[in-house]
Amino acid sequence: MQMKNFGPRLALAALFGTVLLVAAQAPTGKIHGHVTDPTGSPVSSGTISLYAGGATSGDAKYTLPVDTGEYKGEVAPGSYTLVYREPTTPKDKVVDQIDNVKVTAGGDTLQDDDMSRQDYVSKMSPEQRKALEETKAKNAEILKENSTIKNLNGDLAKARSDRANKNFQEAAELMQRDVALKPTEALLWVELGEAQLGLKQYADSETSLQKGIQLDAGGKKPNAEVEGAAGNALGEAYGSEGKIPEAQAAYDAAAKVNPTGASMYYTNEAIVMDRNNQLDATVAAADKAIAADPTKPIPYYLKGKALINKATIDPKTQKIIAPPGTEEAYQKYLDLAPTGPFAGDAKQVLAELNQTQSTSYKATSKKPH
């Protein structure tokens, strides 16, 4: 019988056996946790070192980075001393240590390093404990302030929604409560003033808006948009009471503090002057609005409307004699808004300017909003 040659197979098996021995790995376990300072806040950086055999100096068996209060790693099973060090802590010093931290094979150990725990704080010096208490008190105030601001921001959003839906009473009541809670916040006073304006409580609105402007202007970071909005609303409140010089001054102040909103403020001034039948003041406000932004049609219409209401009739020709600039204002409105809400009125005026009239022409009572 012929003998089989097993030599190569045995050599191959030996080779596989060697590969399997190389591929085999020692079992490991995972460890992770939170690292917080004595105030209870996450530490921003540093390292967690794991020492075997109770050591806390020399070369650590594992060193894991701390990132925004978190650390994690995969290590050999065993019992360790956990040491936290800040980036500037010398290698022979520790900030904190926790003994007998056990990691099991295949497990995931949660081991927090909470330096607000009593046994850590008790080792601090009296000066350190005093500083800690002061810091915790300040942090508590900051958290309270942040919570208040969050609530106030929510109230502001609701008040604005209420005003948009003409629920002025609800908006006013909400802001009355909030200005009592935080009377130094300019924006709350402005929002209260706008709600009171919606309720036609003009005197109250003026007081609230003036308070908002005063607080914002005297603050560390004045907000031009807040003061501009307050001045714009203040102008309307004054105008609603027939206080023409005060209204004009309020709109001018709004445009000065926030030039980017000047076109809107002066357009609103022209509307308010028109409602009060202040023809010269309407023309003056419209001219300022046009100078701020010549592409907006409404100021041209308001100017033309004020001018045509100052027109006379030539006794000889019975033709309308309109003040200079009337036709140009109406025509410019049509150029910019050929299908606008006042296009029909503008066309009618332009057509009648060349016709014989028996009575003085009066522009339509339709008012822009």
Brief description of this entry?
This protein has 369 residues and is α+β, with helices and mostly antiparallel strands. It has helices at 7-23, 118-121, 126-164, 168-181, 186-198, 202-217, 224-240, 244-257, 262-275, 279-292, 298-308, 326-336, 343-352, and strands at 29-36, 47-52, 62-65, 70-75, 78-85, 96-103, 108-110, 113-114, 312-313, 320-321. Among the domains are: 29-121, Immunoglobulin-like (Sandwich), CATH 2.60.40; 137-257, Serine Threonine Protein Phosphatase 5, Tetratricopeptide repeat (Alpha Horseshoe), CATH 1.25.40.
Question: Could you walk me through the main structural features you see in this protein, from its secondary elements to its overall organization?
Answer:
- With 369 residues, the protein is α+β, with helices and mostly antiparallel strands.
- Among the domains are: 29-121, Carboxypeptidase-like, regulatory domain (Immunoglobulin-like, Sandwich); 137-257, Serine Threonine Protein Phosphatase 5, Tetratricopeptide repeat, CATH 1.25.40.10.
- The chain contains 13 helices and ten strands.
- The chain has helices spanning 7-23, 118-121, 126-164, 168-181, 186-198, 202-217, 224-240, 244-257, 262-275, 279-292, 298-308, 326-336, 343-352, and strands spanning 29-36, 47-52, 62-65, 70-75, 78-85, 96-103, 108-110, 113-114, 312-313, 320-321.
- The strands form three sheets. Strands 1, 4, 7 and 8 form a four-stranded mixed β-sheet that branches. The chain has a four-stranded antiparallel β-sheet with strand order 3-2-5-6, with no helix packed on it.
- The protein starts with 6 loop residues before the first helix and ends in a 17-residue tail after the last helix.
